[in-house]
Write a structure and sequence with these properties.
605 residues; alpha/beta; Jelly Rolls; Immunoglobulin-like; TIM Barrel; eight-stranded parallel β-barrel; 9 helices; 30 strands; binds beta-D-glucopyranuronic acid; hydrolase; Beta-glucuronidase; Glyco_hydro_2_N; Ig-like_fold; EC 3.2.1.31
Length: 605
């Protein structure tokens, strides 16, 4: 799916701004063709939850409505007009002038609706019904229940099976864009690079939608806008000599300019930026452009004050600047694909990204008693009770469709902390890995992220992974405060993984300790700033001893909002920055360490 841009043949209008808003009490039916019976408003893009001063609206679970009016300029009336939702969390029904024109489920990927035939001349009424319900058939996974009071009023509840606030609404931009009736529907860019010859064979596939072009021309422009290769046809191989590689923190972006022609006239033009780089996993190393790369960075969230999970581009820019200043080079889009805008920004800034599907919470019998788990044949209820496979497949299709061309994405994470230790995991994951491998035109490595109970003995499906990615909390959730025991356990486990898979690289995708900024302790107590630093120092020491250990992405970049819980103080406090991005003292230690670790060739052996 192409990102909406304006070119000489295309326009983009922004439908962001203030929309009418209403929570649905499910008492009287709502007519989507009429003005919503409500005086509430919400800003778009943003989650609705933290824009209200009403606690009931903030925690509303079920259905809610957004509405606005728009007009389309006469000059566009003969064009193909498409409504594009950057996301609608988690399920949306879209009505134009009272008619349902589209439906989409899955709160973290875009969808489009062609509306050319549904518009009226002057004043169009766009109404969107949304749901923030999550259950055992959705990703993320929610524990869903309903109850009724004496008057018959229905209350819906989602107990999140994951550790972030269930922010919902029109979280990402809503755009109306135009194309001609013969249009470029999609472009796939798959560069094959000969690193020795500094040469790339760029395989470009163009999909023509609507009326048929009789000619398609492709030009590759370098970063200064000069043409460096040209060709014609829907399936082309273009050669780049003296290729400029896209490198971590030294991005170089080419542009594929595609022109569709009919009878010698230019009809549609689209420009797709892309980087040229290689990614490969071999001999326990993660190679980018043929050299062993070391990941330094974070697990993150899309989470800011007021906007919730809504797009906040200023925070995106600030976050990447803070990362670069710390010597970091990468992050994981935990626990869902981030906005198009963030991924495009990472392409441009040279930030390396592991992109994750929204498959979080695929574990319905979590327990801190793991005595049974390592026994062969252990089975809990997860793979019997969950019904997420269809949503999971759809999410893989959608992230590949949206993000296949991005150089910044070097690996896909198929899930975060699923019950991989439980019988049935392999049967569940094998087809999903197969699907992802088939769909990715750049054949990036695949992984999932392992919970502590998924160890070298218990993990039922780690053979599917190209890279072993571990979330570990020795010293925090386990052996709290005891960094000596934790150091031993960290070392023992990493060595065991390395012994089991000598050819697979291993990295940490989470490790961290909740820390209250300004809390100090002469005894390095948990929650203090001193403990957070000691905790990271201990982990760093062990990481440096393990040859196949290729990266450290800590948890979390910044404090973030979660559901209520006795372990959460207005959210999760494992950030090394506060939610407003002030550094905790550990940032000084991490900056020193990361600025002294090169992006490449860190592990000599
Ligand atoms: C991990 C989860 C992450 C949590 C983190 C924590 O992957 O979403 O926020 O633990 O507890 O299990 O801080």
């Amino acid at each position: 799916m192409l990102y909406p841009i304006s070119t000489m043949s295309r326009t983009v209008s922004d439908l962001n701004g203030i929309w009418k808003f209403m929570v649905d009490q499910e008492v009287t039916p709502i007519d989507p063709g009429q003005p919503l019976p409500s005086d509430d408003v919400m800003a778009v893009p943003a989650s609705f939850n933290d824009q209200t001063a009403d606690a009931k609206i903030r925690s509303h679970t079920g259905y809610f409505w957004y509405q606005r009016r728009f007009a389309v300029a006469d000059v566009l009336k003969d064009q193909r007009l498409v409504l594009r939702f950057g996301s609608a969390t988690h399920e949306a029904w879209v009505y134009l002038n009272g008619q349902e024109v589209g439906h989409h489920k899955g709160g973290f990927t875009p969808f489009e609706i062609e509306i050319s035939d549904d518009l009226v001349d002057e004043d169009n009424l766009l109404t969107v019904k949304l749901s923030n319900i999550l259950d055992y058939s959705t990703i993320p996974v929610g524990n869903y229940s309903e109850s009724q009071d004496e008057s018959g009023h229905l209350t819906r509840k989602v107990d999140e099976n994951f550790d972030f606030f269930n922010y919902a609404g029109l979280n990402r931009p809503i755009k109306l864009y135009s194309t001609p009736k013969a249009y470029i529907e999609d472009i796939v860019v798959a560069p094959a690079v000969d690193l020795d010859q500094q040469r790339a064979d760029v395989h470009l596939t163009v999909k023509n939608g609507g009326e048929v072009f009789d000619e398609v021309n492709v030009t590759i422009l370098d970063q200064a806008g000069n043409p460096v290769a040209t060709g014609s046809g829907l399936d082309e191989h273009l050669i780049l000599n003296n290729v400029h590689l896209w490198q971590p923190l030294k991005a170089y972006l080419y542009t594929a300019k595609v022109t569709g022609m009919i009878a010698g006239k230019v009809v549609d033009v689209y420009e797709e930026p892309f980087g040229v780089r290689t990614v490969q996993v071999t001999n326990g190393k993660f190679l980018i452009n043929g050299r062993p790369f070391y990941f330094k960075g974070f697990g993150k969230h899309e989470d800011t004050y007021v906007n919730g999970k809504g797009l906040n581009e200023a925070y995106n820019v600030l976050d990447l600047n803070l990362m670069k200043k710390m010597g970091a080079n990468s992050f994981r889009t935990s626990h869902y694909p981030y906005s198009d805008e963030m991924i495009r920004l990472c392409d441009r800034e040279g930030i390396v990204v592991i992109e994750e599907t929204p498959a979080v919470g695929l574990m319905v019998s979590f327990t801190f008693d793991n005595s049974e788990i390592s026994k062969p044949g252990y089975q809990d209820d997860t793979w019997k009770d969950l019904n997420t496979a269809a949503a999971h497949r759809q999410a893989i299709h959608e992230i590949m469709d949206r993000d296949k061309n991005h150089a910044c994405i070097v690996m896909w994470s198929i899930a975060n902390e699923a019950a991989n230790y439980s019988k049935g995991a392999h049967e569940y994951f094998e087809p999903l890995f197969k699907l992802a491998r088939q769909l990715d035109p750049q054949k990036r490595p695949l992984t999932y992220i392992d919970l502590v109970w998924s160890n070298p003995q218990s993990d039922k499906s780690s053979d599917l992974l190209d890279v072993i990615c571990l979330n570990r909390y020795y010293g925090w959730y386990l052996d709290t405060g005891d960094l000596e025991v934790s150091e031993r356990k960290t070392r023992d486990e990493l060595k065991a993984w390395q012994a089991k898979y000598p050819d697979k690289p291993i990295m940490y995708t989470e490790y961290g300790a909740d820390t209250i900024p300004g809390l100090h302790s002469a005894y390095d107590e948990p929650w203090s700033e001193e403990f957070q630093e000691d905790y990271y120092r201990m982990n760093s020491k062990v990481f440096d001893e393990i040859p196949n250990f290729v990266g450290e992405q800590l948890w979390n970049f910044a404090d973030f909002q979660t559901k209520y819980g006795i372990q959460r103080v207005q959210g999760n406090k494992k950030g090394v920055f506060t939610r407003s991005r002030e550094p905790k003292s550990v940032v000084r230690y991490l900056s020193k360490r990361w600025n002294s670790i090169p992006n490449f060739d860190y592990k000599k052996s």
